[in-house]
Amino acid sequence: MKPLYGVYGASGCGRGIMPLLRQQLATTDAQLVFIDDAPTTDVANGHSIWTFDRFVSEPASQRLAALAVANAGVREVLDHRCRTAGIDVIGVFAANVIIMDDVEIGPGALLSPFVTLTSNIRIGRCFHGNLYSYVEHDCVIGDYVTFAPGVRCNGNVTIGSHAYIGSGAIIRQGISIGAGATVGMGAVVTKDVPPGVTVVGNPARIMDKEMKC
């Protein structure tokens, strides 16, 4: 029997990760499929789409999954689901990702092309680092954090679990972003962000009801 690898999520995020996993496994005799809880088709980009139940029940020497779902809460649920079912949650790194000295990355990280992690960085479980994002020295990042494309995270930044950092956001050195916070697309974050809030703009400020209208 072959090892069975799944990319959990057949939407845009998953379809961006599958080619990276395929490249990562190019020299192995493994079967690669998408996993989706509500598939609308049987195939995406040449790979079969299976339900989770099928992924668990098909014969395999080993089952492993990359969690390519952007929503942090859903990603945590899927992480627990996979581990409970005996499925190893794996990381997928593009071939041109740069990782420097003393970087610790938790299981399940997905690092897209042109991501850079410099030195002395700690990253929790199931981190998503999208295209052209970077994390500078001495940062601490929690579990299930998502960086959209082009995030610039400067040194000595702390980011709590479940935070979402939007495309092109810039995070000033030395600040803290609370758990569950959202940083809007293109925001320039110059001071600490409390847990659970959304900040937007330059300089970034907490979104209030007037701004939502």
Automatic annotation (TrEMBL):
The record marks D138 as: Increases basicity of active site His. The keyword Hydrolase does not apply. This is Acetyltransferase. InterPro entries: AcTrfase_PglD-like, Hexapep, Hexapep_transf_CS, Trans_hexapeptide_repeat, Trimer_LpxA-like_sf. Keywords: Acyltransferase, Repeat, Transferase. Pfam families: Hexapep_2 (PF14602). Signal peptide: none annotated. It comes from Pelagerythrobacter aerophilus. One of its GO terms (molecular function) is acyltransferase activity. The active site is at H137. Belongs to the transferase hexapeptide repeat family. PROSITE patterns: HEXAPEP_TRANSFERASES. The keyword Acyltransferase applies.
